[in-house]
Amino acid sequence: MKKKTILRLLILLLAIALPISAASCTKPTESSKETTPSKTTAATTEKPVVILPDVPADRYDAVKTPRTGSNANTPLVVSTGTLDGKFSSFFATSAYDVDVVGMTQIGLLYYNKFGAPEAGINAPCLAYEFEEDIAADNSTSTYTFILKNGITFSDGKPVTAKDVLFSIYVLGDPMYDGSSTYYTMKIQGMDEYRLQTSSDVLDTVEAILAAGIATNEDGSMKINPATGATQAQQEAFWGYLGEAGEIFANEIVQYCQGYVDKYAEAFLPGFTPDQVKESSTLQTAFSMALWGFGKGGENAAFTDNSGTTYDLTKDTVDGKVFWQNILGKYGYDLSDNGVNYEKAGDLNVQDYVKQLYVQKEGTVEGGVKDISGITTGKLTCDDGVEREYIRIVMDGIDPTAIFKLGVSVVPMHHYTAGYTGKLNDNGVELSSKAFMDHLKTKNDQPLGAGPYVFKEYKDKVVTYEANESFMLGSPKIKTFRYQEITLGAELDSV
After folding, report:
1. Overall number of domains in the chain
2. DSSP letter string, 34-91
3. In angstroms, rounded to a whole number, what is the distance separating the alpha carbons of residues 37 and 352?
């Protein structure tokens, strides 16, 4: 939805209808190493290399040719729905917020009106060219994105490969809690980085998961024999299932909080939505009832699926109780038709077991500093111009990958400004809640290389000014606004 909205607005506001040009890096070669000039060569004979920006030659420049009439003096106002105020490529929680931040951003790729990925000088994205290479045996997929030269953020700072890496590493961080599922792609080294472990440990874990578990006749857990893992390793691994199950259940509880205002009194008679929000026991009981694992009754009573009745004014109902009820229904069937049928997020309960096991028993001394499948460098293209590139190697084939890899490219300098913690070479502090909380302080300060510059959000109006350095040229209309209106009142505003 974000990409389509941006497309419509770009057509409307920029009045640019240029064809996507073919890039000239179809067969890039690695940059040669610099050589020391000969002492007999006069320095004055060497001409400095001028790297021109990869932008359309005929792009509109409002500084040289000022706007006139309504384009210069009359803001264009477009209505939007209720905004959450989270104007961040990382943490936007609604389609309307995504639209707001999208006006200030560019992606690594551009997706046209048919949804096809594009790159090139005339495309509103950072990639000059991209290439997909599938191994002959389908074992790996390699994506190479060659980046444009001379592109700047709206504050004048250059957009570089470091900003792309920063954007990716935020989305790949274990503490990231936004809506992106970038980290779920099978990028080589992603799991090792997120879990700070080795490929050997992960191979053992995969062997344990492949063997799986089952339910004995007496209801206890049965560990199936695994090839590539010892019995002790299996027992240690599945020993974290209870803790993982509580996390799994609490994710359902977190999800259900969005329905408290509407359904609290129906599922927990005698309790108001505000009371439910203030009590973890009431939140869990409400979620269990909403999810079909219990029922609220009179006099603050709650009966779960096992038949146990709780007094919600004094007894505790928590994630452990919820998890035991889930096990009571499915046993140790962890399939998508079993326990994982109940999941409220992207991860299965086995994923949480894996995280706990590796974090506590499989971390690598000294840590894993980088995602091995993501590299960067410089290439000299066929036109003789040197450009940066980002290369991403994935295991197997994922037809949807190219639509996930075109991330919004955000300015590392803007998002890390003011942070006092220790950042790694990719601009993040791994697994740090403090770092993620710092990024969220920028939710009301979107900044990027898109067509407009965010100015303010006040009285339900978002105001932008044109980004005069936008890669495709100055927007035709100087001032743009989003006017927030109540859904259902659209006709009243006509």
Report:
1. 2
2. P-PPPTTS-GGGPPPPP---SS-TT-B-TTTS---THHHHS-EEEEE----S---TTT
3. 57
Distance CA(209)–CA(318), nearest Å, equals 27
The encoded tokens of residue 237 equal 């691994």
Residue after which a domain boundary falls, among 317, 343, 363: 363
Q: Could you say which DSSP state residue 53 is in?
A: -
Per residue in 154-202, pLDDT (tens digit) is 999 999 999 999 999 999 999 999 989 899 999 999 999 999 999 999 9
17 and 153 housed in the same domain: yes
Mean pLDDT (whole number) for 46-53 = 74
Residue for token pair 């046209």 = 112
Residue-wise pLDDT for 301-344, tens only, equals 999 999 999 999 999 999 999 999 999 999 999 999 999 999 99
Burial track 232-249 (b if 16+ CB lie within 10 A, e otherwise): ebbebbbebbebbbbbbb
Share of the chain above pLDDT 90, in %: 85
Asked if 123 contacts 132 with a C-beta cutoff of 8 angstroms, the reply is no
Is 43 among the domain residues?
Answer: no
Q: Please check whether residues 207 and 349 belong to one and the same domain.
A: yes
Distance of CA 218 to the CA centre of its chain: 43
Count of Cβ atoms closer than 10 Å to residue 16 Cβ: 18
Do 379 and 359 sit in the same domain of this protein?
Answer: no
Same domain (yes/no): 396, 268: no
Count CA atoms closer than 13 A to 16's CA, side-chain side: 26
Confirm whether 114 is domain-assigned: yes
Whole-number Å distance between alpha carbons of 111 and 123: 9
Q: Report pTM.
A: 0.76
> Could you identify the residue written with the tokens 């505003």?
493
Q: Which domain holds residue 281?
A: 197-363
CATH number of the domain encompassing residue 83: 3.90.76.10
In a domain, 208, yes or no: yes
- Please report which helix (H) or strand (E) contains residue 221, including its range: strand 221-223
Helix ranges (H only) for 312-419 are 319-330, 349-361, 401-404, 412-416
Q: Which residues contact 480 (CB under 8 A, 6 or more apart)?
A: 13, 75, 76, 78, 103, 452, 463, 464, 466
Query: Helix, strand, coil proportions of the chain in percent (round to 5)?
Result: 35, 20, 50
Residues 201 and 114 in one domain: no
Residue 358 sits in the same domain as residue 381: no
Is residue 35 assigned to a domain? no
Q: Are 237 and 362 in contact (CB under 8 A)?
A: no
